[in-house]
Every structure is written in structure tokens, then in C-alpha cells.
UniProtKB/TrEMBL annotation:
Enzyme class per UniProt: hydrolase
Residues at which substrate binds: 278
PANTHER family, A to Z: ADENINE DEAMINASE
Annotated protein name in UniProt: Adenine deaminase
UniProt keyword Transferase, yes or no: no
Species this chain originates from: Arthrobacter ginkgonis
Cofactors that this protein relies on: Zn(2+)
Domain of life: Bacteria
Length: 326
């Protein structure tokens, strides 16, 4: 079977997925053309040639450039619908998708256009499939804290359209501690909270995310393995870690998939999940990630079934929905 088909039968939740990272080059050029936007690449081939990333920031530069193609509510609806149809085909039954409002409002696209479009796309797919989930608004940690606070204020009136908030973009130099007040305000709105930490940043960022932001999950978190103390804590507190193997490979977090810490994390009894992060850019959707770790790391069926169950348990789905999927 094709890589994606091998683990497609396993019901799973996708907990670490940036919807803007599902924008495939062909769709970017199609949307740019209809919006009269000029992308800074001659064609799809030239864009794909830019996918030779060396680290997180080298990826983020291309990721933000391509977002220029996204302008209308229908663009966001199509983006979301297209991703969800692929995800459903790969066994995803629940998805909590990240979106980056500041990357759009800074270009003059209103946050309501983004949210309305994504929710419309979600509804089109959920109407005919066994699929639940919603949106997690991410703050861009490499932009001013005041802008994050304004972004939260701008969605206060529609907090019920969101599952929670997260923290993404360039990590090193932008510690979670900066966002303590913004996250407190988000929690006061009844929103769930997660944060990227320990992808490129140090273990201290994971600690700050837990102690200062009071996050319920850590996105990536692979660098926790540098601290036995942190590993013990994550195990004891059953903190889900949303690991993204192909992302880690493409961004140089690991130099070879065979060196990925996922097996060691499982041996440590950490609550790990496997996710696709930015599948259009990193060479695979969620079942492709399952297949890649099965092949490169020799993980067996039982381990991957556990990883899939972790994703459902670690989700913010209502208890009844979790029971249905487990
Ligand atoms: N890390 C941080 N920011 C991001 C990522 C990521 O993996 N993907 C999209 N924005
Ligand atoms: Zn991410």
C-alpha cells in the first residue's frame, strides 16, 4: 500500500497542524492568480526549490511569503476543506487546527474573514464525515506581546468559535514567559491553552510553558529528553506532547529520522502523539508521518496504536466523543 494508506485505518486525532501549512504550491498559485497577488517565485518548481530548509526560521520565511495568496473567506474555506478531505482519508476523526491570525491581519485580512472561512470549510466536510474538532488561535511569539493581546481582544466576542490558544513562530529568543499575561486572559475566557516549546528552544521554555502559561499540552517538546527531571515531570503529569517527525527532519531538529527521539520518549512512557505540523512543506500528512516513523524507527503496530489512542485521549474533545473514538 501507499505510505498514507498503511495507517489510515487507525482512528486518530491531529493535534499539531497549522492550516496555513497545508497550502500546497499549486493552490497557492491558483489563489494568488485569482486574487491578483504576485508570489515571489516564478512558478511551482521555483517555489518547491525553496523547500530546502535548514532550520525553523528558513521555513517560516517561505511559509509567511506563501500566505500572501490567501485573501478571501473562500480562500480559507477551500484551504480548510482541502486539508480535511485529505486528513479524513488518512484516518483523522478529530482535528484541533492552528491558525495564525497576525500573519493575516498584518496584511489587511480581517480576523473574522479568516475564522469565518475556516469554520465554513470545516462545516462542509463535517456535514458528510465522522469528523469533529475546531480551531486553536496561535500568537506569533516573534511579534510584540501587545499585538498578541490586541489579537485576543479582537476575538473576545467570538471565543466560543475557538477551542483554545497556542504559541508559535520563531522560538529561540522568544520565551513563553513573555506571554504570561496574554495566556492568563485567554484562560479567563475559558479557552484551552497549548504552546510550542522545546522544538529548537531549550527545556526551560517547556518549564515556562507549564508553570507560567499553564498549558495543557506541549507542541513538539522533543528537547525534554535533555532533562531527566523534565521527562519525569511530563510523565507524572501525563502532559501530551504533539511530536512532528517529518517536520523535525526537514527543519534539522534531527539530522536523520533514524535518530528521532520518539522511541526513547515511548520507552519513558511519555504521552506522545504523532502529527504533521505543516504537511504541504514537510513531505507528508499524518498517516505519512506514522509510516515514516514505523519504517525509520521500527515502531510496531502496538506502539503506533498507542500513539493514535494518545492523540484521542490528549485532545480537547468532549468525553463522549473520546469514548466513541477510543
Ligand atoms: N514551529 C513554530 N512555528 C510554526 C511551526 C513550527 O513547527 N509551523 C508553523 N509555524
Ligand atoms: Zn507547529
Amino acid at each position: 500500500p501507499a505510505p498514507a494508506e498503511r495507517y489510515a485505518a487507525l482512528p486518530k486525532a491531529e493535534l499539531h497542524l497549522h492550516i496555513e501549512g497545508t497550502l500546497e504550491p499549486e493552490a497557492a498559485f491558483r489563489m494568488a492568480a485569482r486574487n491578483g497577488v504576485k508570489l515571489p517565485y516564478a512558478d511551482v518548481e521555483e517555489l518547491r526549490a525553496r523547500y530546502a530548509f535548514t532550520d525553523l526560521v528558513s521555513f517560516l520565511n517561505v511559509y509567511y511569503e506563501c500566505m500572501a495568496a490567501l485573501r478571501t473567506e473562500e480562500d480559507f474555506a477551500e484551504l480548510c476543506e482541502t486539508y480535511l478531505r485529505t486528513a479524513v482519508g488518512q484516518g483523522v476523526r478529530h482535528v484541533e487546527m492552528f491558525f495564525d491570525p497576525q500573519a493575516h491581519t498584518s496584511r489587511g485580512v480581517p480576523v473574522d474573514t479568516v475564522i469565518d472561512g475556516l469554520l465554513a470549510g470545516f462545516a462542509r466536510v463535517a456535514a458528510g464525515e465522522d469528523l469533529t474538532g475546531g480551531l486553536i488561535l496561535c500568537f506569533l511569539r516573534d511579534r510584540p506581546v501587545a499585538e498578541a493581546a490586541e489579537t485576543l481582544e479582537s476575538v473576545r466576542h467570538r471565543a466560543s468559535d475557538l477551542i483554545g490558544v497556542g504559541l508559535d513562530s520563531a522560538e529561540v529568543g522568544f520565551p513563553p514567559s513573555l506571554f504570561e499575561g496574554v495566556f492568563a486572559a485567554a484562560r479567563a475566557l475559558g479557552l484551552h491553552v497549548v504552546a510550542h516549546a522545546g522544538e529548537e528552544g531549550p527545556v526551560e521554555y517547556i518549564e515556562q510553558a507549564l508553570d507560567l502559561l499553564h498549558v495543557e499540552r506541549i507542541d513538539h517538546g522533543v528537547r525534554c529528553m535533555e532533562s531527566a527531571e523534565m521527562v519525569a515531570r511530563l510523565r507524572a503529569e501525563r502532559i501530551p506532547l504533539t511530536v512532528c517527525p517529518l517536520s523535525n527532519l526537514r527543519l534539522g531538529v534531527v539530522s536523520d529520522l533514524a535518530d528521532h527521539p520518539l522511541p526513547a520518549m515511548l520507552r519513558e512512557d511519555l504521552m506522545v502523539t504523532v502529527n504533521s505540523d505543516d504537511p504541504a512543506y514537510f513531505g507528508g500528512y499524518v498517516a505519512d508521518n506514522f509510516t515514516a516513523v514505523a519504517d525509520a524507527l521500527g515502531l510496531g503496530e502496538e506502539q503506533l496504536e498507542l500513539v493514535a489512542r494518545n492523540s484521542i485521549s490528549g485532545s480537547f474533545a468532549p468525553a463522549g466523543r473520546k469514548a466513541q473514538l477510543l
